[in-house]
């Protein structure tokens, strides 16, 4: 057997394949963790929640690696998994409020602030009041600066639908902020 | 002639710079002469400006910590699954022994050897694929489904509400997720409305 063949055979040993794949998975995590963590950090209130969701996303990435087709960039594919994870999480949270009958959670009067300057934290609160899908489209487009083509792929819709979704989201956000008593004069 | 309402609909994409240049110019012209739409647009700009300025603070070393945490979680899974999978080659070896014994009784020597070689190749193959890195964890389709099946009817969301209200003994949230997995956003909101009505 030639030396080259010997080498190929060596690379195909289970231990080497395992190592090779572990390395590429780790690289995928390192290259994309910041994007994915930031996405979740805008969606939830605490670091721990964002960290949990980031881990959940990458575990799913790992489990579905064999299904990844090279027609899309790895990061948009990972985003796609993250967005699904995020939307499910938001829905679960919303449901929990009603199922637990936790009256404390249903109180929402405390975040009405009159004549207040528009700030990051107010915006974060307002974003949580629009639908999960609209939250995602706003975060992906406005915060993370992705193109509508990318947003469409990630959200499994058309570019046009993504634009319509974004328009509704931004308009809703504006009225939520107005209901919270935000004024824009200072801007 | 477009109404202010029509222009209003274009303003979000105008603000994000995603209109065609023709539409963009039309909107610009209208904004010059309409204060109401101008104010509307300024509010949207203010909102997007805050979003652009805002950045998420990452703790240094988060990436490395994440890799360690993930590898820890995946390792724990795979050692458990490996233990199960080791039984497959063992089983194949046992079967080979049985087959060889039978063959040696009824077949000539060379044909028997071929069989053994075949079986060994198969066992090696099993050994490689089933203990390979990605072979260890079953692929879970449900994880990345986007709810393509469109079952969003009134019946479906009533079913969903029924399941949630009637099955509190299952993990509440799980039953809820199960029941709403195929709903689109609008129907999901209906479920929430219905829930408020049923429970509160
Ligand atoms: Zn106007």
Task: List the keywords.
heterodimer; A: 187 residues; mainly alpha; Arc Repressor Mutant, subunit A; two-stranded parallel ribbon; 2% strand; B: 200 residues; 9 helices; flat; binds zinc ion
List the helices and strands and how they pair.
The complex is a heterodimer of chains A (187) and B (200).
Chain A: H1 3-11, H2 14-43, H3 47-64, H4 74-99, H5 103-106, E1 116-117, H6 120-127, H7 132-143, H8 148-154, H9 159-179, E2 182-183
Parallel strand pairs in A: 1-2
Helix pairs in contact in A: 2-3, 2-4, 3-4, 4-8, 7-9, 8-9
Chain B: H1 4-15, H2 21-33, H3 35-53, H4 62-85, H5 87-106, H6 109-131, H7 154-166, H8 172-180, H9 185-199
Helix pairs in contact in B: 1-2, 1-3, 2-3, 5-6, 7-8, 7-9
Bound molecules: zinc ion.
Zinc ion (ZN) binds at residues 4, 7, 30, 34, 36-37 of chain B.
